[in-house]
Write a structure and sequence with these properties.
Number of strands: 32
Radius of gyration: 21 Å
Strand content: over 45%
Number of domains: 3
CATH architecture of the largest domain: Sandwich
Largest sheet: 6 strands, antiparallel
Length: 398
């Protein structure tokens, strides 16, 4: 059993005003959605039993200066054990106390409950993190942001970790072989009375793993596993029925790696202009930041990082761009040139990271004209086992 990163992001930053009382956010990947008083619209499904630890968030700014704010894990509509305390005026990373955890059973639905004091000001959250250890084996969960689905007889696509659907197909490239074992859609607050079909795609081809969503509820397909080879491109296709009514869709894809590595994936369909330097989080519904600290994510386990990459969906730069993995504010070993559309990557170099190291992506677009649309990104993680110290008896020869 290996713990895997849950890496999430709030694509445009989650603004939390003072006097926020029992409002709900997604646990890990909220996209650009505001807080909701309806918990079901922000819950995410855990199809597999396991344990959550080391939950934390990054606070980019905080003008709530009089007393603490709290974020509490919620499980099936009730308070869990883990609480993140954000001190008055505090910025940076804040995590649950060491040793605290929440166990989840298969089918549990998890959210985050946020409360701030009734004073003045606001805080902005951009990143989040946690570790998930499945009760048996290694299970990686890719969870897309909740989004308001109101597709009237149309088609949309998502990469893994994306916040909303795109009319053009955006794909996540997996660099770890294995099997996708489940596609799950939680539909809430639905006024749709038509059949919406959600299908997993591999290399732009529909797979047999699909679910039909009608109304509110949890809709899953675990009967049609999809094998994944290194380099396969994965996306999710949504085909809406003939209705302009809406529902909230939360989609989870579960993946079991066949080896010792897994991929942290993100999607950030955002334009970057020539002559700019852009930083993004490792995973989730990313965005481009001018400030690296807002995008940097602490590693939660010692690991070897490899195959850092970005997928470019639109390209019109006159002078190219360079992608890099950044570690603790400096360039890592991995770098790749970007000169068109498609996947660009470094398959030659690796970076070793320790717990607490701050990691981010950067894309530097050279001076000139034009722009690029950064569709998705990924990095492959091989966790390193903690050192084992053997106590050898000391024999003294008399």
């Amino acid at each position: 059993m290996a713990a895997t990163h849950i890496q999430g992001a709030w694509e445009r930053g989650l603004t939390v005003n003072f006097n926020t009382v029992n409002q709900f956010s997604a646990f890990s990947n909220n996209g650009n959605l505001a807080l909701s008083g309806t918990e079901a619209d922000r819950q995410e499904l855990f199809p597999t039993e396991g344990k959550l630890t080391q939950w934390g968030v990054y606070v980019q700014s905080n003008t709530i200066a009089t007393s603490d704010s709290t974020i509490r894990l919620r499980k099936n509509g009730a308070d869990g054990s883990m609480i993140i305390t954000i001190p008055a005026g505090g910025t940076g990373w804040f995590s649950t106390p060491t040793g605290t955890f929440d166990s989840v059973a298969a089918g549990d639905k998890v959210a985050a409950k946020i409360n701030t004091p009734n004073t003045s000001g606001a805080l902005v959250i951009t990143n989040c993190k946690a570790l998930f250890a499945a009760a048996s084996g290694t299970v990686v969960r890719y969870r897309n942001s909740p989004w308001s689905f109101a597709l009237n007889a149309g088609t949309r696509y998502q990469a893994l970790g994306r916040l909303a659907g795109s009319t053009t197909e955006v794909m996540s490239v997996l660099r770890s072989a294995g099997t996708i074992v489940g596609l799950h859609v939680v539909a809430s607050n639905s006024s749709r009375s038509v059949n919406d079909v959600v299908t997993l795609r591999k290399n732009s081809v529909d797979q047999s793993m699909a679910v039909t969503v009608n109304g509110s509820g949890t809709f899953s397909n675990t009967a049609n596993p999809v094998s994944v080879a290194v380099g396969d491109q994965i996306s999710i296709k949504y085909v809406g029925g003939a209705s302009a009514s809406s529902a909230f869709f939360n989609t989870v894809v579960e993946f079991i790696p066949s080896g010792q590595t897994f991929d942290v994936l993100g999607s950030w369909e955002q334009s970057a202009n020539a002559g700019t330097t852009n930083y993004s989080q490792l995973g989730g519904a990313q965005r481009a930041f001018a400030t690296e600290a807002a995008a940097s994510n602490p590693m939660l386990q010692a690991a070897i990082l490899s195959a850092a990459r970005t997928y470019i969906s639109v390209y019109s730069l006159s002078a190219g761009a360079t992608g890099r993995l950044r570690i603790n504010g400096a360039n890592g070993n991995q770098t790749w040139s970007i000169n068109g559309t498609g996947e660009f990557k470094d398959l030659s170099n690796t970076d070793r990271v320790a717990p607490g190291d701050l990691v981010a992506f950067s894309v530097v677009a050279a001076a000139g004209t034009g722009s690029i649309s950064l569709g998705s990104s990924g990095v492959t993680v091989r966790p390193l086992a903690p050192p084992v110290f053997l106590r050898t008896p000391l024999f003294i020869r008399g």
